[in-house]
Design brief:
Blueprint lengths: L1 E5 L9 E7 L6 E2 L4 E6 L4 E5 L4 E6 L5 E4 L3 E6 L56 H9 L18 H16 L37 H16 L2 E9 L1 H18 L6 H14 L5 E4 L2 E4 L5 E3 L1 E3 L2 E3 L2 E2 L7 H16 L13 E4 L19 E5 L3 E7 L2 E15 L5 H16 L7
Parallel strand pairs: 12-16, 16-17
Antiparallel strand pairs: 1-8, 2-4, 2-7, 3-6, 4-5, 6-8, 9-19, 10-11, 12-15, 13-14, 17-19, 18-19
Helix pairs in contact: 5-6, 5-7
Length: 434
Amino acid sequence: MPTNVIMPQMGESVAEGTITKWLRKAGEHVGRDEPLFEISTDKVDAEIPSPAAGILSQILVKENETVAVNTVVAVIDGEGAAVAAPAAEAGVEGATPPAPAAALPPAPAETASVPTAAGGATAPTAPAEARSSPLVRRIAHDYHVDLTQVRGTGLGGRISKKDILAYVEQRQSAAAGRSAAAREPLVQPPPAPVQPAPLSPTLTGPTQVVPMTPMRRQIAEHMVASKRTSAHVYTVFEVEMSEVVEARERQRDEFERRYGFKLTYTPFFVRAAVEAIKQIPVINSSVDGTNLIYKRNVNVGIAVALETGLIVPVIKHADEKNFLGIAQAVQDLAERARNKRLSVEDVQGGTFTITNPGSFGGLFGLPIINQPQVAILGVGAIEKRPVVRDDAIAIRAMAYLSLSYDHRVIDGAVAEKFLGHIKQTLENWDEPAL
């Protein structure tokens, strides 16, 4: 029985989507919940899983073609399959859960968390034909793992990335002996294949015309609209980072051992910005005509560079989190952004944004405000520089912080006070990371 694959609605206000890449070709077999195609909307990019197992008999919408939601984009021929729309992500409004296949219970995408109809999960199993995503199968190939030996913890025994990495780590630990197990994680996921930069095409003549990707078009429209809307003004502070650098160096090994990811500088800047917003709440506002809207919740967007552009996932209620909570949120959002696992809710509701050109070596930048917000913080590279301390030349870790702000709302004195609060917090850092 054929299954129609439709363009999902990625949020209430999303009316259309662009198919950026088909991950299967017509005539190929696709498993239920395996990534089938990638889409881009004005809210988020995402991988869409297959609603059923079978043969991808027809592809009705080509790559880079934009269609309305609920449009049939492909047909899958499979036994016992019902017409269904793929659920792109947990928590995505308007997405229809896949209909159950005849022989298998429903299973979510690798990182989604979709409850069953009964509200529970099936017990972990190790089926004869392991159910997994292409990423899991690639890791298994790189580490020479037989997937039928891996215990899957997902619904229907589906093997997740966490399952395969845990299996490999356990196998390596047994081979190396218990004495070497505790210092550092033994397994690192194999690096993703390096793709050519989309902005560096291979030229076949004196010039080459390449259409903008959907994401690049949306970035362009958003940036131009912001420049038309806000009266941009900029200010730059130089901040000594010695206390932050020392705190990170002192705690980073134990932090990584305990929590399983690296301690970066980003959470320090987020934490300092949140504390400054508490002191100067006008930074956490927006404009509606002649009204100024103050926001109670501090939702901090973190700009994440992707191969094809930029996306800004949001740390919700950052003012209610301690340092560790912010660090975990930064890590989670950045990883899901790069793996195209963000939901619409992950990129909505931001009240203030931080971008970090310093991670690429930039001393500072003058970023464009992310509408409808009224300010954005730019973080420059942390470098050792000669500075004057007590009438003597000293070497200190220094960084430039820039603030782009909307002069319709924020005056220069207010912007200077805001950056001053951030500077004071960073230069007198005393909050533990652990």
